[in-house]
Structure formats: structure tokens, C-alpha cells
Design goal:
Distance between the termini: 56 Å
Helix content: over 70%
CATH superfamily: Sodium/glucose cotransporter
Number of helices: 27
Structural class: mainly alpha
Shape: globular
CATH topology: Sodium/glucose cotransporter
Order of helices and strands: HHHHHHHHHHHHHHHHHHHHHHHHHHH
CATH class: Mainly Alpha
Largest sheet: none
CATH architecture: Up-down Bundle
């Protein structure tokens, strides 16, 4: 790091703080302002903010590692479930969350189930999601941060963590959700631009593309350039496990629930939530990954056969090919990706503690100013716990990558469908899924050693156990009261098995529901084709499979045109323009 690099890093940190200051007044209007941004997020802000949260401090190192370690197939570890869940959430789950008009997903428990048990479990689940899920996710990205920029800065883990977290904490406390969202937009663009600038530098330093492809083939063989599964580690049972994850990933805090749902709930209306998620899918699946295919190829050419750990490759490329100014820009981009993830996860975790615990059970009549200061204290507390776990426990990054992205949520995945599509699921089934999921996933993956076995074994064990436990507990306990189910249905209007409620609907209402469901299923199928074609065309281009890339691109273009036509007929795009969208949301379908 040269003096110019430190100036760039300092300038970035100052800009991030200033963005937080800009939104301090709007965040100071109370819980709705701090955690929901006044429900004012537009589709483009949701898309940029969501992809920025997904693009954590480990993304540059992780995406580079996946290509270096597993060739062009490497990113299919997360691509397979994401090409399924992202269009499903865009079409279906995003509008569910926006219709509910709630502040946190813990509040959902009381809306969906009702009764004393739901009221009690609301605060238990709030503690569980904040001190469990939010803290673990922040600890994971903190662990990646030490692997990516620590060696470049020449700092130890503790110094790296404290510097990055300090800046994040200040602007997140000032600006709340809006400060986090608009900082994330700037941070994502910086992260992407920095690594895009690095591509030609690294390619030139490694001797050009022709030499890079030749060296990678020499080190790893022709299989390195295989573009689409099956192949490599992706046998049929592994692919099936990943497909199952994608179909049910709407239950995950990083999928259709949790901090992703928080942004849907903060949208201007359900259509902004839907289009925002669609925009997020394009940015997440294709745009943010492309630089790291180049850098992964360079890493394979330069370090192939050296035995270097995959998580170190990106940092070593920066040390080898970076120069004054560029190195500072890359470190600032990596710092930005860390802060964009942590700022959202802090705000999300604190929303549970304040909205579902403190305000409800301890100080229900306090002033909005009081809640604001307690919210800031809760935000700081969660970050402090995450830093300790990240410093002491997060090691072995490929095992943690699969745990966070695939294994941690396996047990609770059935809840994605059962909550919204089956009236009989009750609070006891919800409790069984949520309480057992995280600790059981950690136990099986790490202490019992399933991280050293084929991925599908641990995943399918947890997924199957989740179904058995949730269904058994649900059937052995009483159903929810019909009045509660009717109120939930009135607010959310989900499809599926809701006979105790839908029996009271008029024939016209049932027909409208059927038409909405059929249209949504059609749109979901088109969305999956679009996403699959986009990622397959991307890998085929890097693998130089020109005919396959052209075929995938053509299929994607046709499916995109059909999807746009369908949403235009539904009025989705027209309803983005004005206040009539809220009224339209009650009739579309």
C-alpha cells in the first residue's frame, strides 16, 4: 500500500460516512423511518441494495476461488439454487411480504398464527434471528474480510476488523435503512468498477488471454473449461439437492425472507418489490460475477499447481499485479462490499430486537426518539458479537461458504411453502423448524464432519429431517383458529391449500385467484428460463463454446420478451409510475 492508496481508502470512508449523514433526519423519525425507510424504496434502489448485500467482503475472493478451485463449473454451487429462487421470489414472495405491511419477519409469526403461543414465540424468534442468523452472517463476511484485504494492508485480523467495522457502524447508526441502502448502491458500483479496472491489468501481467487459457489447461486439464453441469463435483444427486434448495429458498434469511424481505416490506408498493427483485436477479447472477471469471482464469494460470489455498488467490493477484492507486481502489471496493453486507444485516437484526422484543414487551409507550437511540444501541451490540465470532471461529472458507449458502438453511426450507400455501401449518410446526434449524445444521456440518463428505449428504439429511419434524409436530397439535387464517388470507391473498378460508369466497374471487396463480406459475417458468440461459451463456462464452453460448442467449432473449409481455399485460410496469399502484395491487391478476 502506497500513500496514494491510503488517500483513496480514506476518501471512500469519508463518502460512506457522508451518505449516512444525509439520511440521518429521515432515519430519526422513529422505527418506520429507521428500519423501513418510510416504505419509500423504488425498484432500482431495492435491486442495487439487494445485490450489494449479497456481494459481501468475501465475494471477490470467493468467486475467484470457485473458478480457481473448480473451473468454470465452480459458480454453479450457488447458481443452481439462485436461478430458481430469484425468479420465484420476484414473482410470488416479494408481493406477499409487501402486502402484509409489517416491520420484521418475526412479526409475521403473530400475523400468520395468532394466539398466546404466537405472541410468545414472536419475541423468541426475534432473538433467534438477531443473535443467531444476523450475527452468524455478519461473522462469516468478517472472516472473509480478513482473508481478502488483511494481507494487502499488512494488518493483523483484529486491526482489519476494527477499522472496517468502525466505519460501517458510524454511518449505519446515523442513516438507518435508507443510509444503508444508498450507501450500498455507491459501494456496489465502486466494488464492481474497481475489479473491472483490474481485469486488463491482471490479463496483461499474466501474458495475455491466449497464454492464460493455455496455462490453465496445462495446470488443470480440459475439464477446467467445462461450462455447465453435470460434470466435476456436480453429479446428479448433488444437482438434485441444489435444485431442491432453490425451490424452497424463499424461507432463507438471505433468500425470500430475512433482510431480503425487509427491503420488499420497505418498497413503495408490491410492484416495486417485484421489479426490484427481478433487477436484483440480473445484477446478482451475471453482472457482479463476470470480473471474477477473468480473475479466476488468471489465478489458475499464475498459481495453478502451486497448492495455494483458493481463498487467497484474489489477494495474491492484487499484491502481484496491483500498483499505486489501483491497489487502494481494490481495497476500497472490497471494504465497500463488506460494509454493504454488514450494514443491512445490522439493521435487519436490530429491527427484531426493537420491534418484536423491546417495544412490545418492555417499553410499549416510549417516544420515537427513545426507540431510535435503543435501535442504535442494538445495532452496535449485534456487530460487536459478530466481530468476536468472525475473529475466533470463522476458518476454512470453502466449508463456511457451503454452510452459509446451502446448509445453514436446509432444515427450515419446507417453511417457505408451508407458511403461505398450506392452511394447516401451525405455530408449533413453525417453532419446531426455526428452533432446530440453525444449531442442528452447525452440528451436522462441522462437529459431525459432514463438511468433509459429499455436499448432498449433509444437505439432504437436514432437508428431509426438516420435513419430517415440521409435519409431525403440525399434525400432532391443533390447527390455528379460522378467524386468524381468514385475516392472514385477507392481507396476503396466497394461493394453495386454504379450503377453510376459500370456501367462503365468491365464485368470482376464486376465479381471480386461479387466474393470478396460473399467471404467476407461467411467469416463474419464464423467469427460470431467463436466469438459466443467462448464466449458461456466460460460462459458455468463457469456455469458448460459441454455439452453446449463442443458443442459450437466443433462448434467454425469447423468454425475456415473453416475460415482459406477460408483466405488461398485468400492469406491473405501468403501476411503477404513480400512486395508483397501491390501488392496482388489490386487483391485478
Amino acid at each position: 500500500m502506497q500513500p496514494l492508496d491510503w488517500w483513496i481508502l480514506g476518501a471512500y470512508s469519508l463518502i460512506a460516512l457522508l451518505i449516512g449523514l444525509v439520511f440521518t433526519r429521515r432515519a430519526s423519525r422513529g422505527i418506520e423511518g429507521y428500519f423501513m425507510g418510510g416504505r419509500s424504496l423504488a425498484w432500482w434502489a431495492i435491486g442495487f441494495s439487494a445485490v450489494a448485500t449479497f456481494t459481501s467482503s468475501g465475494s471477490a475472493s470467493a468467486f475467484t476461488m470457485l473458478v480457481y478451485r473448480d473451473g468454470l463449473l465452480g459458480n454453479w454451487w450457488w447458481w443452481i439454487p439462485w436461478i430458481l429462487w430469484m425468479p420465484l421470489v420476484a414473482v410470488i414472495w416479494s408481493k406477499f411480504w409487501r402486502r402484509l405491511q409489517i416491520v420484521s419477519t418475526a412479526e409475521f409469526v403473530e400475523v400468520r398464527y395468532g394466539g398466546r403461543a404466537a405472541g410468545a414465540f414472536r419475541w423468541i424468534s426475534a432473538l433467534y434471528f438477531s443473535f443467531g442468523w444476523a450475527v452468524v452472517l455478519m461473522a462469516y463476511v468478517t472472516g472473509w474480510l480478513t482473508k481478502s484485504i488483511g494481507p494487502i494492508l499488512g494488518w493483523g485480523n483484529a486491526a482489519t476488523i476494527l477499522f472496517a467495522a468502525g466505519v460501517t457502524l458510524v454511518y449505519s447508526l446515523l442513516g438507518g435503512l435508507l443510509g444503508a441502502v444508498y450507501s450500498e448502491i455507491f459501494q456496489f458500483i465502486l466494488f464492481l468498477a474497481a475489479n473491472a479496472v483490474f481485469i486488463p491489468v491482471a490479463i496483461h501481467g499474466a501474458g495475455g488471454l491466449h497464454a492464460i487459457y493455455a496455462a490453465a489447461a496445462q495446470h488443470f486439464g480440459a475439464g477446467f473449461f467445462r461450462a455447465t453441469p453435470p460434470g466435476g463435483a456436480f453429479d446428479r444427486i448433488t444437482i438434485a439437492a441444489l435444485v431442491l434448495q432453490g425451490l424452497f429458498f424463499a424461507a432463507a434469511p438471505a433468500g425470500g425472507g430475512g433482510f431480503t424481505a425487509q427491503k420488499f416490506m420497505a418498497a413503495k408498493n408490491e410492484f416495486h418489490a417485484q421489479v426490484g427483485q427481478l433487477f436484483n436477479a440480473f445484477l446478482s447472477l451475471v453482472v457482479r460475477v463476470i470480473p471474477f471469471f477473468f480473475l479466476g482464469l488468471v489465478g489458475a494460470a499464475v498459481f495453478g499447481g502451486s497448492g495455494m489455498a483458493g481463498q487467497l488467490v484474489w489477494g495474491e493477484l492484487v499484491k502481484r499485479f496491483g500498483f499505486a492507486g489501483l491497489t487502494g481502489l481494490l481495497v476500497a471496493g472490497e471494504l465497500a462490499s463488506y460494509q454493504s453486507a454488514v450494514s443491512t444485516e445490522m439493521n435487519w437484526g436490530a429491527s427484531y430486537l426493537i420491534n418484536d422484543v423491546y417495544k412490545r414487551f418492555f417499553r410499549p409507550q416510549a417516544s420515537e426518539r427513545h426507540y431510535l437511540w435503543i435501535s442504535r444501541g442494538a445495532t452496535a451490540l449485534l456487530l460487536a458479537l459478530a466481530l468476536l465470532i468472525g475473529y475466533f471461529l470463522v476458518n476454512g472458507m470453502m466449508a463456511w461458504f457451503l454452510f452459509i449458502n446451502n446448509v445453514m438453511i436446509a432444515f427450515i426450507l419446507p417453511l417457505a411453502w408451508l407458511r403461505f400455501f398450506w392452511w394447516r401449518l401451525n405455530i408449533w410446526g413453525e417453532i419446531a423448524g426455526l428452533v432446530a434449524g440453525l444449531p442442528l445444521g452447525y452440528l451436522i456440518w462441522f462437529p459431525l464432519g459432514f463438511s468433509q463428505r459429499p455436499f448432498w449428504q449433509g444437505f439432504l439429511l437436514l432437508f428431509g429431517a426438516g420435513w419430517v419434524v415440521i409435519l409431525a409436530v403440525t399434525w400432532l397439535t391443533p390447527p390455528e383458529r379460522v378467524e386468524v387464517l381468514r385475516e392472514f388470507y385477507r392481507r396476503c391473498r396466497p394461493p394453495g391449500l386454504w379450503r377453510p378460508v376459500t370456501d367462503a369466497l365468491t365464485p368470482a374471487e376464486r376465479d381471480a385467484q386461479r387466474r393470478e396463480l396460473h399467471g404467476d406459475l407461467y411467469d416463474c417458468a419464464l423467469g427460470i428460463v431467463v436466469c438459466t440461459a443467462a448464466v449458461a451463456a456466460t460460462t459458455d462464452l468463457f469456455g469458448r463454446h460459441w454455439l452453446a453460448a449463442a443458443s442459450c442467449a437466443a433462448a434467454g432473449i425469447v423468454a425475456t420478451a415473453l416475460f415482459i409481455r406477460s408483466w405488461r399485460q398485468k400492469g406491473v410496469f405501468a403501476s411503477l409510475r404513480g400512486p395508483q399502484a397501491d390501488a392496482a395491487s388489490a386487483t391485478v391478476g
